[in-house]
Design goal:
This protein is of the alpha/beta class. It has a single domain, classed as Metal-dependent hydrolases (TIM Barrel). A five-stranded parallel sheet has the order 4-5-6-7-8. It has a three-stranded parallel sheet with strand order 1-2-3. Strand 7, helix 9 and strand 8 form a beta-alpha-beta unit. Helix 8 runs parallel beside helix 9. It starts with a strand and ends with a helix. Keywords: Lyase.
Length: 302
């Protein structure tokens, strides 16, 4: 049986509504308009991000509902149902924290906790906090430029990546321009901080450290061209069709593509189906994408 490790998941409310949902029980999944389902059922061939403001607001609303249902209990049930062996939990401060995700991992060993920089701290304090997180079991670092309202050009980002890079522990970045809040919300946000060019400019300066650019299998040729010669960069399969995954392996490399869902925004069932469809004729690559590539950079034992 092929092992499955999801490199890109969240539990609890990562948005600025900031409901404390992770450890609640008996939270039922609601009935609401959900464009995520439409995209999943299309085999990720229907575009998720659209220009029409009304349709985009439907997506924003559905995303908020999904995180309000994303308890540890519901997450664990979905992992069991779809036979997912491990899931990397990516916190987004100030809304979800390493301490929260570490507690989840203590309760269920299938969860692998990452941490996130606290950009409200000055650099020396930020570094000390991240060093402590590593000692306590952080297996990776998450940076979300849009939700954290920070550019990859900020020296605090560089300081955080240095801490993890020197420890040979991966950093995963959100890459992609999108708005997470509608006009009725007044949260600070700079969607342009998700522009892939920020990552393309950032990565060469840290060419010895493992860096994961989330969502970039969606733009495999462009990503490969802009990271040419960098053996340290990886991406995930979030929101990808089988055809896009095949392009990712072709252009980026079979050792550089990691299975990811962005759960709860992507679900295991449809994402797994697409990987199996993409690599039905090559189990060796399927095993790499589902588990081996991520296990290697996370230093997991078989």
């Amino acid at each position: 049986m092929v092992k499955i490790l999801d490199i890109h998941t969240h539990v609890g409310d990562i948005f600025h509504e900031n409901r404390s949902i992770t450890f609640k029980t008996n939270i039922k999944k609601g009935d609401y308009e959900d464009p995520f389902i439409e995209v999943e059922r299309s085999g990720y061939t229907k575009p998720l991000i659209v220009k029409d403001q009304k349709d985009h607001q439907r997506l924003i609303d559905a995303g908020q509902y999904r995180v309000w249902e994303c308890t540890m209990e519901n997450f664990g049930k979905d992992m069991t149902e779809d036979e997912v062996d491990y899931a990397c939990l990516l916190p987004v401060l100030p809304n979800t924290s390493f301490e929260e995700y570490l507690a989840v991992s203590k309760l269920d060993s299938r969860f692998i906790p990452f941490t996130c920089p606290d950009f409200s701290l000055e650099i020396p304090e930020l570094e000390r906090k991240l060093e402590l997180d590593i000692k306590r079991g952080a297996k990776g670092l998450k940076i979300h430029p849009i939700l954290q309202n920070v550019s990859l050009e900020d020296p605090k980002v560089e300081a955080a990546v240095e801490v993890f890079g020197k420890a040979n522990i991966p950093t995963i970045f959100h890459v992609g321009i999108t708005s997470y809040y509608g006009p009725d919300k007044d949260y600070p946000s700079n969607p342009e901080f998700g522009d892939p060019q920020y990552f393309y400019d950032f990565a060469p300066r840290f060419s010895k450290y493992p860096l994961i650019a989330a969502h970039c299998c969606l733009l495999a040729e462009d990503f490969a061209e802009n990271t040419k010669g960098l053996d340290n960069v990886y991406t995930d399969t979030t929101m990808c069709s089988a055809e896009l995954m095949q392009l990712g392996v072709q252009h980026i490399g079979e050792d550089k593509v990691l299975f990811g869902t962005d759960y709860p925004f992507g679900t295991f069932k449809y994402s797994i189906q697409e990987v199996k469809r993409a690599f039905a004729n090559d189990e060796r690559i399927m095993k790499k994408v589902f588990y081996e590539n991520a296990a290697k950079i996370l230093h997991l034992e078989d």
